[in-house]
Design brief:
Order of helices and strands: EHHEHEHEHEEHEEEHEEEEEEH
Largest sheet: 7 strands, mixed
Distance between the termini: 50 Å
Number of domains: 1
CATH class: Alpha Beta
CATH topology: Rossmann fold
Shape: globular
Structural class: alpha/beta
CATH architecture: 3-Layer(aba) Sandwich
Helix content: 10-25%
Number of strands: 15
Strand content: 25-35%
Radius of gyration: 20 Å
Mean pLDDT: 84
Strand order of the largest sheet: 4-3-5-7-14-13-12
Protein backbone atom coordinates (compact mmCIF):
# COMPACT_ATOMS: atom_id res chain seq x y z
CA UNK A 1 0.00 0.00 0.00
CA UNK A 2 0.99 3.62 -0.52
CA UNK A 3 1.67 6.07 2.29
CA UNK A 4 0.30 9.49 1.48
CA UNK A 5 0.08 12.57 3.73
CA UNK A 6 -3.55 13.29 4.46
CA UNK A 7 -3.46 16.99 3.46
CA UNK A 8 -1.77 16.21 0.13
CA UNK A 9 -4.31 13.45 -0.45
CA UNK A 10 -7.25 15.84 -0.01
CA UNK A 11 -5.66 18.65 -2.01
CA UNK A 12 -4.75 16.32 -4.91
CA UNK A 13 -7.86 14.22 -5.48
CA UNK A 14 -10.54 16.16 -3.58
CA UNK A 15 -13.18 14.99 -1.15
CA UNK A 16 -15.38 13.53 -3.87
CA UNK A 17 -13.00 10.61 -4.38
CA UNK A 18 -12.47 9.77 -0.70
CA UNK A 19 -14.87 6.84 -0.58
CA UNK A 20 -13.21 4.95 -3.42
CA UNK A 21 -9.62 5.87 -2.64
CA UNK A 22 -9.47 5.16 1.11
CA UNK A 23 -9.08 1.34 0.89
CA UNK A 24 -5.79 1.75 -1.00
CA UNK A 25 -4.30 4.59 0.99
CA UNK A 26 -2.70 4.74 4.41
CA UNK A 27 -3.08 8.25 5.74
CA UNK A 28 0.40 8.39 7.23
CA UNK A 29 -0.17 11.57 9.22
CA UNK A 30 -2.69 9.79 11.46
CA UNK A 31 -0.20 7.17 12.66
CA UNK A 32 2.57 9.62 13.54
CA UNK A 33 2.95 12.07 16.40
CA UNK A 34 1.51 15.27 15.01
CA UNK A 35 3.64 18.40 15.08
CA UNK A 36 2.52 21.92 15.98
CA UNK A 37 4.14 25.28 15.34
CA UNK A 38 3.21 27.97 17.88
CA UNK A 39 4.11 31.61 17.29
CA UNK A 40 5.69 32.75 20.55
CA UNK A 41 7.53 35.98 21.23
CA UNK A 42 8.53 37.27 24.70
CA UNK A 43 6.86 40.62 25.31
CA UNK A 44 4.29 40.13 22.56
CA UNK A 45 0.83 40.78 24.00
CA UNK A 46 -2.49 39.41 22.86
CA UNK A 47 -5.15 41.79 21.54
CA UNK A 48 -8.81 40.78 22.02
CA UNK A 49 -7.57 37.41 23.20
CA UNK A 50 -6.59 35.59 26.36
CA UNK A 51 -3.64 35.98 28.70
CA UNK A 52 -1.98 32.64 29.27
CA UNK A 53 1.56 31.51 29.84
CA UNK A 54 3.78 29.31 27.72
CA UNK A 55 3.49 26.64 30.42
CA UNK A 56 -0.30 26.64 29.99
CA UNK A 57 0.04 26.20 26.23
CA UNK A 58 2.54 23.39 26.71
CA UNK A 59 0.05 21.66 29.00
CA UNK A 60 -2.78 22.17 26.50
CA UNK A 61 -0.70 20.76 23.63
CA UNK A 62 0.94 17.89 25.51
CA UNK A 63 -0.41 15.39 22.99
CA UNK A 64 1.63 16.97 20.18
CA UNK A 65 5.24 17.54 19.28
CA UNK A 66 5.35 21.31 19.80
CA UNK A 67 7.79 23.91 18.46
CA UNK A 68 7.54 27.42 19.92
CA UNK A 69 8.90 29.68 17.18
CA UNK A 70 9.72 33.36 17.27
CA UNK A 71 9.06 35.57 14.26
CA UNK A 72 12.36 34.82 12.55
CA UNK A 73 12.17 31.08 13.18
CA UNK A 74 8.59 30.90 11.95
CA UNK A 75 9.50 32.62 8.68
CA UNK A 76 12.34 30.16 8.13
CA UNK A 77 10.68 26.94 9.26
CA UNK A 78 6.91 27.07 8.73
CA UNK A 79 6.02 24.44 6.15
CA UNK A 80 2.89 22.34 5.65
CA UNK A 81 4.96 19.18 5.13
CA UNK A 82 6.66 19.70 8.49
CA UNK A 83 3.89 21.00 10.74
CA UNK A 84 0.39 19.54 11.01
CA UNK A 85 -0.95 22.64 12.74
CA UNK A 86 -0.17 26.33 13.17
CA UNK A 87 -1.32 27.98 16.41
CA UNK A 88 -1.56 31.78 16.57
CA UNK A 89 -2.23 32.52 20.27
CA UNK A 90 -2.36 36.33 20.33
CA UNK A 91 -5.98 37.00 19.37
CA UNK A 92 -6.19 39.65 16.65
CA UNK A 93 -2.45 40.41 16.81
CA UNK A 94 0.27 38.77 14.73
CA UNK A 95 3.87 39.57 13.69
CA UNK A 96 3.53 41.43 10.39
CA UNK A 97 6.77 40.09 8.89
CA UNK A 98 5.45 36.54 9.29
CA UNK A 99 2.43 37.15 7.03
CA UNK A 100 3.97 35.81 3.77
CA UNK A 101 5.04 32.60 5.54
CA UNK A 102 1.60 32.15 7.09
CA UNK A 103 -0.15 32.70 3.77
CA UNK A 104 2.15 30.23 2.01
CA UNK A 105 1.47 27.63 4.70
CA UNK A 106 -2.30 28.04 4.42
CA UNK A 107 -2.18 27.89 0.62
CA UNK A 108 -0.38 24.55 0.95
CA UNK A 109 -3.37 23.19 2.88
CA UNK A 110 -2.01 23.86 6.36
CA UNK A 111 -4.26 23.57 9.42
CA UNK A 112 -4.69 26.57 11.69
CA UNK A 113 -5.94 27.38 15.19
CA UNK A 114 -6.37 31.06 16.12
CA UNK A 115 -7.04 31.81 19.78
CA UNK A 116 -9.05 34.99 20.32
CA UNK A 117 -10.09 38.10 18.44
CA UNK A 118 -10.40 38.52 14.68
CA UNK A 119 -7.69 36.45 12.98
CA UNK A 120 -4.81 38.44 11.45
CA UNK A 121 -6.46 41.83 11.87
CA UNK A 122 -3.83 43.70 13.93
CA UNK A 123 -0.30 43.54 12.50
CA UNK A 124 2.52 44.18 14.96
CA UNK A 125 6.03 45.28 13.94
CA UNK A 126 9.29 44.83 15.84
CA UNK A 127 11.19 48.07 16.44
CA UNK A 128 14.27 49.03 18.44
CA UNK A 129 11.99 50.01 21.33
CA UNK A 130 9.86 46.87 21.23
CA UNK A 131 6.69 45.79 19.45
CA UNK A 132 4.70 48.50 17.68
CA UNK A 133 0.98 47.80 17.24
CA UNK A 134 -0.38 48.93 13.86
CA UNK A 135 -3.99 50.06 13.34
CA UNK A 136 -6.57 47.34 12.88
CA UNK A 137 -7.06 46.45 9.21
CA UNK A 138 -8.82 43.85 7.04
CA UNK A 139 -6.30 43.56 4.19
CA UNK A 140 -4.74 40.35 5.51
CA UNK A 141 -7.73 38.27 6.53
CA UNK A 142 -9.66 39.35 3.42
CA UNK A 143 -7.17 37.34 1.38
CA UNK A 144 -8.36 34.31 3.34
CA UNK A 145 -12.05 34.92 2.64
CA UNK A 146 -12.81 36.60 6.00
CA UNK A 147 -14.35 39.76 4.60
CA UNK A 148 -15.73 41.57 7.66
CA UNK A 149 -16.16 41.22 11.41
CA UNK A 150 -18.25 42.87 14.10
CA UNK A 151 -18.31 42.66 17.92
CA UNK A 152 -21.20 41.17 19.88
CA UNK A 153 -21.68 41.39 23.62
CA UNK A 154 -21.44 37.99 25.22
CA UNK A 155 -25.01 36.87 26.01
CA UNK A 156 -26.01 35.99 29.56
CA UNK A 157 -27.70 32.80 28.43
CA UNK A 158 -25.96 29.46 28.53
CA UNK A 159 -23.91 28.48 25.52
CA UNK A 160 -24.62 25.27 23.67
CA UNK A 161 -22.17 22.78 22.25
CA UNK A 162 -21.96 19.15 21.21
CA UNK A 163 -18.49 19.01 22.76
CA UNK A 164 -18.58 19.33 26.59
CA UNK A 165 -14.82 20.00 26.72
CA UNK A 166 -15.41 23.48 25.29
CA UNK A 167 -17.85 24.54 28.01
CA UNK A 168 -15.43 23.94 30.89
CA UNK A 169 -14.67 27.30 32.53
CA UNK A 170 -15.75 29.10 29.34
CA UNK A 171 -16.01 32.84 30.11
CA UNK A 172 -16.40 35.14 27.09
CA UNK A 173 -16.45 38.92 27.45
CA UNK A 174 -16.89 39.99 23.83
CA UNK A 175 -17.44 37.87 20.71
CA UNK A 176 -16.23 38.77 17.22
CA UNK A 177 -18.54 37.46 14.53
CA UNK A 178 -16.99 36.86 11.11
CA UNK A 179 -18.32 37.14 7.57
CA UNK A 180 -16.69 34.27 5.70
CA UNK A 181 -16.77 34.00 1.91
CA UNK A 182 -16.30 30.45 0.68
CA UNK A 183 -16.42 31.14 -3.07
CA UNK A 184 -13.49 32.56 -5.04
CA UNK A 185 -15.48 32.83 -8.28
CA UNK A 186 -18.99 33.92 -9.29
CA UNK A 187 -21.60 31.90 -11.12
CA UNK A 188 -22.51 35.15 -12.88
CA UNK A 189 -19.18 36.87 -13.69
CA UNK A 190 -20.90 40.11 -14.73
CA UNK A 191 -22.78 40.39 -11.43
CA UNK A 192 -20.62 41.48 -8.52
CA UNK A 193 -21.47 39.60 -5.33
CA UNK A 194 -23.26 36.71 -7.01
CA UNK A 195 -22.88 33.26 -5.50
CA UNK A 196 -20.28 30.78 -6.71
CA UNK A 197 -19.14 27.20 -6.05
CA UNK A 198 -18.72 26.64 -2.33
CA UNK A 199 -15.12 25.72 -1.49
CA UNK A 200 -15.62 24.98 2.18
CA UNK A 201 -17.97 24.33 5.07
CA UNK A 202 -18.40 26.39 8.26
CA UNK A 203 -19.39 24.46 11.40
CA UNK A 204 -20.29 26.09 14.74
CA UNK A 205 -18.54 24.34 17.63
CA UNK A 206 -20.11 26.46 20.38
CA UNK A 207 -23.02 28.89 20.12
CA UNK A 208 -25.76 30.76 22.00
CA UNK A 209 -29.43 30.93 20.99
CA UNK A 210 -32.03 33.57 21.79
CA UNK A 211 -35.22 32.73 23.65
CA UNK A 212 -36.89 32.51 20.24
CA UNK A 213 -34.48 29.77 19.23
CA UNK A 214 -32.40 31.81 16.79
CA UNK A 215 -28.62 31.67 16.99
CA UNK A 216 -27.37 34.86 18.57
CA UNK A 217 -23.60 34.38 18.73
CA UNK A 218 -21.02 31.78 17.69
CA UNK A 219 -17.71 32.28 19.50
CA UNK A 220 -15.99 29.13 18.19
CA UNK A 221 -16.19 28.00 14.57
CA UNK A 222 -14.53 25.46 12.31
CA UNK A 223 -13.92 26.00 8.59
CA UNK A 224 -13.06 23.02 6.39
CA UNK A 225 -11.44 24.21 3.15
CA UNK A 226 -12.38 21.47 0.68
CA UNK A 227 -11.61 23.09 -2.67
CA UNK A 228 -9.81 26.08 -4.10
CA UNK A 229 -6.74 27.96 -2.97
CA UNK A 230 -6.65 26.60 0.59
CA UNK A 231 -7.93 23.07 -0.08
CA UNK A 232 -7.12 20.48 2.56
CA UNK A 233 -6.82 22.86 5.50
CA UNK A 234 -9.03 23.05 8.56
CA UNK A 235 -9.21 26.40 10.35
CA UNK A 236 -10.57 26.67 13.88
CA UNK A 237 -11.23 30.13 15.33
CA UNK A 238 -12.00 30.85 18.98
CA UNK A 239 -13.07 34.39 18.06
CA UNK A 240 -13.72 36.03 21.43
CA UNK A 241 -11.83 37.53 24.33
CA UNK A 242 -12.18 36.27 27.86
CA UNK A 243 -11.11 32.90 29.22
CA UNK A 244 -10.70 29.49 27.61
CA UNK A 245 -9.42 26.52 29.60
CA UNK A 246 -6.25 24.72 28.63
CA UNK A 247 -8.23 21.49 28.17
CA UNK A 248 -10.50 23.27 25.66
CA UNK A 249 -7.45 24.59 23.79
CA UNK A 250 -6.09 21.06 23.60
CA UNK A 251 -9.39 19.77 22.22
CA UNK A 252 -9.51 22.54 19.60
CA UNK A 253 -5.95 21.75 18.53
CA UNK A 254 -6.85 18.07 18.12
CA UNK A 255 -9.91 19.06 16.09
CA UNK A 256 -7.98 21.43 13.84
CA UNK A 257 -5.13 18.99 13.20
CA UNK A 258 -7.49 16.49 11.51
CA UNK A 259 -7.50 18.58 8.33
CA UNK A 260 -10.56 19.22 6.18
CA UNK A 261 -13.11 16.42 6.01
CA UNK A 262 -16.37 16.04 4.16
CA UNK A 263 -18.28 12.76 4.26
CA UNK A 264 -21.34 12.28 2.07
CA UNK A 265 -23.58 9.28 1.55
CA UNK A 266 -25.67 9.13 -1.61
CA UNK A 267 -27.77 6.29 -2.90
CA UNK A 268 -26.94 5.03 -6.36
CA UNK A 269 -30.46 3.68 -6.89
CA UNK A 270 -33.80 3.75 -5.10
CA UNK A 271 -36.51 1.17 -4.72
CA UNK A 272 -40.06 1.24 -3.51
CA UNK A 273 -42.09 -1.43 -1.82
CA UNK A 274 -45.79 -0.92 -1.33
CA UNK A 275 -47.08 -1.88 2.09
CA UNK A 276 -49.84 -4.43 2.32
Amino acid sequence: MTKFPRRKFLKTIGSAAVATALPNVILGAQSQSRSVAVIWEPGFRAIHGYDFTRDALEQALKGFTVAFLNERELIAQLDATRFDLLVTPYGSAFPKRAWPAILKYLRAGGNWLNLGGVPLSVPVVRTEKGWLVNPRQAIYHKQLGITHSFPVNAPLSLFKTNHPELAIDFKPEEIYELYVRLSSSNNEPDEAGSDGPHEGVVTPLLWADTFAGRTYAVPIIQIDRLLGEFAGGRWVFANFNGHLSWSAIGWLAEQAAWSAIEFRVRSAATSRKDSL
